Structures are given as structure tokens and as C-alpha cells.
Amino acid sequence: MLRGYLEPRGWVVRKVEQSEDYGIDFEVEVFSDEGDRFRSTGFIFKIQLKSSGKSRYLKSDSCVSAEIKKKHLAYYLDELKVPVIVIHSDVNGKRLFWAAPQFDEQLRRLADPHSEAKVTLRMRTANELPASIERMLRDVSRVATMIATRAVVSAPIPEFLSGLRPDVAGEALARDLRDRSDAVRLHELQRLFWRAPMTRGKKS
Are residues 142 and 187 in the same domain? Predict the structure, then answer.
């Protein structure tokens, strides 16, 4: 089912062979349709595929649940430098659902690189493939941006500067970084505003 939904789009789905269990089953390379042929976008993400013959649907939350190891969560969140999508396959119902665990801060608190224990991951039934495939790709792109941002922030300044391409214009880059820094500050102010308790004025 997974290949049947992704490969007709021109995407390449590669089975990942690992000597140790890291919770990665497939690697997907995204291709764009240019009419007469498909061209690689250079965009790659990983997939863990969880299959079940008895999928558990939680109607009250409009979701399906799947179990994932704590050590795999830790690997996705803290070590892997590419986006990961967890896909649940309802084998009997012939349905696929997805989730982007690298966005979930609640899962971060449960991650443990030394634990074989499992946690429950809830996937929205609205995230069913192939209908939501464009939204899945947008989330993959957002995760990639998040990972890249963390890498830039955590890199020592000399290392960051030495990694710049020679053709990158210094002034243009500095201006772009200032704009992005301003956007981050605005985002943080908005987040704090919406988290602050709302007070109602009293009539005199």
C-alpha cells in the first residue's frame, strides 16, 4: 500500500536494511513531475511503518493508535538529522495513516535512548493517505526546516562561518538572518500572549 501511494507520484521508496534496530524501515526521495519526466528535488525523509491486523480506532479522539519504542523516539528527536514520518497500516481495512513525531513535544518527554518500553502514538484519522499526502509533505518540509534551524543555532560561530559557501553574499545573508531573528521574536511574543491568562474588565 505504501509503495502504491508514493511511487506513482514518481517518488523513490527504498527499503532500509539495518544491522541494528533504529526504527527506520524506508527512505523516500521526493521527485517532481515535470511533464515528460520526473526530476529529483533532493528532498529525502525516513519512514517507520507500523502494520496491524487489528488497528485500534479511538472514535472520541478521531484517531488510530500505534505503539513506538522510547529508544526510537529518542533517535528521531535527538540524533537523526532528517525528517521522520511514522505510518500506521491497517492491513485488514487497507488504510494508511501518518504522524510527524519530531513535532510532538509531549513525546519528547517520553523519549529514552536506553529503554525498550513502548509508548502510544495517536494518529489523526484526518491524516489518511493518499488524501492528506500534500499536508504530509508540508509537515516533512517544516520538520526539515526545524532541524536545519537547530543545527545553525547550535553550531559555534567559527564553524558556522567556515561552512558558508564562497558565493554567499555577506550583507545579504546578514540581512536575511536579521529578518528571521525578528520573525522569531515576534513568534515568541505571540506565543506568550496566547498562553497568558485572559482577564475580563469589571464594570464600575
Answer: no
Going by C-alpha positions, the residue among 91, 5, 100 that lies closest to residue 55 is 91
pLDDT tens per residue, range 146-184: 888 876 666 666 665 666 666 665 667 667 667 666 666
Tell me how far apart the alpha carbons of residues 116 and 118 are, in angstroms, rounded to a whole number.
7
- DSSP3 helix / strand / coil % (the chain, rounded to 5): 40, 30, 30
Q: What is the dihedral of CA 181, 103, 61, 91, to 10 degrees?
A: 150
* Whole-number Å distance between alpha carbons of 1 and 162: 45
**Same domain membership, residue 191 and residue 136:** no
Reported pTM:
0.75
